Amino acid sequence: MASQTTTPKYGPETTGLELVHQFPDEVKGRIFLITGPSHGGIGGETATSIAAGQPAVLILLGRSKARAQPVLDAIASASPSTLIKFIEVDLSLLSSVRAAAATILSDPEIPHIDVVINNAAIMASPFQRTAEGFEMQFASGHLGHFVLTNSLMPKILAGTAPVRIVNVSSVGNRICTVRWADPNWTEEGAYDPWDAYGQTKTANVLFTVALNKRLAAKGYPADKIKAYALHPGSIATNLQVHVVQAGAESMAAAIEKTFHGEPNPIPGVKTLQQGCATTLRAALDPGLTEQEGVWLVDAEISTDPTWIESWSLDEGDAERLWKLSEELVGERFEL
């Protein structure tokens, strides 16, 4: 007798709009915050997909309103009733992040936040230190989101269940763990753009693990609020600008570092719609908490080591990262 196979409910071809239409009650009338909403990127596609479900408010945080304007126009066209709040912020500068958070906290038109999508990132950039002394990828991809999310926690905890915090990571977490002794690459000649990217993507997952542990310790059940991290897939966006400039050798080095010499399992390039689907499953599906795990690939919970390293899920390292992050930003967060 031939064995039967079950077709997965979701997969690499699932689209963001499919998820929005599948979970209309988790979109309509709710308040979403998304970082990195530029046109032509995953964040912009995530925002316009959500707009199709008529949310009450979309809070978009980005460096340039001009780059996001096509997204703002698309949202207004798809859902004229949605209140759009664009807030300029440089996630690599904590002073800018804190100012943006203060603006949101003081805005009476944002009584709470139901879903936070920490999407913004930089990939494999040349070495650069921020004005506050942090390595650029780590600052913009992790520390900025760490401060933003924690600063907004009063309004996040006031959100309507299921409240979600979604941290867009990458299979790049497999490149390396956090450089605990020198996360800002102060050692002369040590900087490697892909290792810096891997550190940041690992930090995204560890931040997720630490958030969930702290929320549970404070008595918040997972069906009230939960954080997830994810690999969106390989999508051609402006995120790869530094990789394109560096040439084919840079991408070959990335694949070697990520998969440790094993064959590249990435099936191909996704469309933007396919690329935002995993984010939206994490953000919208109220039944997701019935499954164990915090990591998603192709819109499904996964523990496959092909896509997630054990160091990224380590609870001890998650606590270590939280304390390191507090030390670096000079602020303690107790939720």
TrEMBL record:
Record bears the keyword Oxidoreductase: yes
Organism field: Coniochaeta ligniaria NRRL 30616
Cross-referenced SUPFAM superfamilies: NAD(P)-binding Rossmann-fold domains (SSF51735)
Protein family per UniProt: Belongs to the short-chain dehydrogenases/reductases (SDR) family.
Entry keyword annotation includes Oxidoreductase: yes
Lineage: Eukaryota, Fungi, Dikarya, Ascomycota, Pezizomycotina
Protein name: NAD(P)-binding protein
Classification via Pfam families: adh_short
GO MF assignments: oxidoreductase activity
Entry keyword set: Oxidoreductase
